[in-house]
Design brief:
The protein is 47% helix and 7% strand. It is of the alpha/beta class. The longest helix is centred in the N-terminal third of the chain and has 31 residues, at 55-85.
Length: 364
């Protein structure tokens, strides 16, 4: 199932998710170039206003919705600028105001009524692309000026501050993040999932990361190409790999991840080295018990099938691999060359006394 360049919202995605049951034949879902907007508040009061409220109440409700969307867009633009410029947004804004006012002493840069001026500042000071600048300009104008009086950098800064305060003070799950994450939960039948160019940033990917941590029983590939995922978002995904061992492919091309984010992604992968036998022995015993439990479950395991009878992908029950022969004590009489004295003779049984254990992490 492929959906591209569509005007979706969280309610439409909820309807789609409800139709994807275990009995359906859909195994691959592509939602590309279809970003979601912040929904209007679905409180009882908001529903009352929409159904029977006055014109003034409806106008206020819609204005509040436009402001929330502008705050979301401004906050994401600030995160993009921080990732590209490697500086906090507040520092970038301070430098921008000082520099632009110095270049235009007769006309301080308060309001920008045309896109050309906005593009110039966003590109030069914040390293935003023209498309990113356009989306931000439209969102801020729709919320604060209706395109009549232009938009100011102060309004941009205020929108970022308001958005961050809203997120920090909220106790509810983010609605957009929850919509994207719903296709990765423990009941999802999807095996191949793509969210290319859906304007997924830190907030959205944190919800996706939490869903990955309690993984879908069938998901084996997730494509997040062309979004706004930064190092913090990569850390959220990396934490999921501590418990998710079934995902075989994760696409993160054309995002904002640096070597720091890569370290977060790889943190749960690789090996852990234990030098003390007192530490290794209990773990080896535990691993053997886990392998016995896995073998017992696999004897009664019945793979799930879709509505057409095709067997769905199901990852094997994961048990860390264990090696015992890593570092050996080399007997001096086996070494002819003093320069290789630290190297073991693997052909000699007396040299293979284990003094270290390696425990394999998640498969990379």
């Amino acid at each position: 199932l492929k959906i591209s360049y569509c005007d979706l919202d969280v309610n439409l995605l909820a309807l789609l998710r409800a139709g994807l049951s275990e009995s359906c034949t859909v195994s691959s879902l592509t939602i590309d170039w279809s970003p979601l907007e912040v929904p209007y508040q679905e409180t009882a009061e908001a529903k009352r206003i929409l159904s029977e409220g006055s014109a003034e109440e409806k106008a206020s409700l819609h204005a509040n919705g436009r402001a929330r969307r502008a705050e979301r867009r401004a906050m994401q633009a600030a995160e993009v600028a921080e990732a590209k410029c490697s500086k906090p947004f507040e520092d970038l804004m301070t430098v921008t105001l000082e520099a632009e006012n110095a270049e235009n002493p007769q006309r301080p840069l308060q309001l920008m009524r045309d896109r050309a001026a906005w593009h110039r500042v966003m590109r030069k000071r914040f390293q935003l692309t023209d498309q990113e600048a356009d989306e931000l300009f439209d969102s801020l104008c729709a919320a604060y000026s209706n395109y009549d009086s232009g938009i100011s950098l102060e309004q941009f800064q205020n929108a970022v501050t308001a958005g961050r305060e809203t997120v920090a003070g909220s106790t509810e799950p983010d609605p957009i993040a929850s919509s994207f994450a719903s296709f990765l939960d423990g009941t999802s039948p999807i095996e191949l999932l793509s969210y290319r160019c859906c304007r997924i940033g830190r907030l959205e990917v944190e919800g996706i990361g939490k869903a990955l941590a309690t993984p879908s029983p069938h998901l084996k590939a997730l494509n997040l190409w062309g979004n706004y995922i930064c190092d913090q978002g990569a850390a959220a995904l990396g934490r999921a790999f501590e418990t998710n061992f079934g995902l075989q492919f994760l696409g993160l091309g054309r995002n904002l991840i640096t070597h720091v984010g890569l370290q977060h992604l790889c943190k749960a992968l690789g090996v852990t080295r234990l030098f003390e036998k007192s530490q290794a022995d209990p773990l080896i015993k535990q691993l053997k018990e886990m392998m016995k439990d896995r073998d017992k479950k696999m004897k009664t395991f019945v793979p799930k099938s879709d509505g057409a009878g095709r067997q769905r992908y199901t990852p094997q029950l994961y048990v860390p691999r264990e090696w015992q022969t890593i570092l050996v004590i080399h007997q001096e009489h086996h070494v002819q060359d003093p320069s290789t004295r630290s190297q073991p003779n693997l052909g000699c049984a007396s040299c293979l006394e284990p003094s270290a254990v390696w425990l394999r992490g998640a498969d990379s």
